[in-house]
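Batch job 17 of 40 flagged for manual review because the log was empty.
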Amino acid sequence: MKSLIESIRKIEANQETLRQRPYGMIEVVQGQFVRVQLRPWPKYASRLEAHWLQAMRSKRHRQDVCRLFYNQPMGHRNFLTLSYVESSLNTQLKTFYRALDVLTQIAFIKRSDAILAEVTNQRISDRFLIRRGWERHMEQKRQRHWIKRFYGTYPESAKKFSADIAPLESNVQPVENAHDSQQAFPNLSSMDS
């Protein structure tokens, strides 16, 4: 019997499992892929939860870590939603980029047409998103909806499974207590650097 929560450390070797499981959390520490934790339920977050987690974070446990939660909605299996991003005050931009690259690899494995996100953090500029390949979506809405479209054309980096290539340093480990050391913001929303 398969576990409800499963950790994937080798993306290329576990493509079928990643293809079948619709909900996950990508963890990158110090710019290096650590794992995809597959979950039995989707991650939904509220602004209240984000502010509560931010207030509860420990100031002595600040690491270069980024956790990116994605969902594959039941009625729209050809899309992924980037539902939540957690980062610490010391998270480097390269760590955030690495998490986004792993999400793109998962979209390639699942043959997703696009990744969608509602960006609530005003520190993430439109210009930044455009440079990373995102475009505005549903502009008539008040919220900032963004989409990264593929429709069968994926970046070459998504096909290389580079998450498996970089060896993990012995001091790079998953951060077990997800609410101990990060600043959390709902919906694609962290970066303090």
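Reviewer: the log was empty due to a logging misconfiguration, but the result itself is present. The first helix runs from residue 15 to 20. Unflagging and moving on to job 18.
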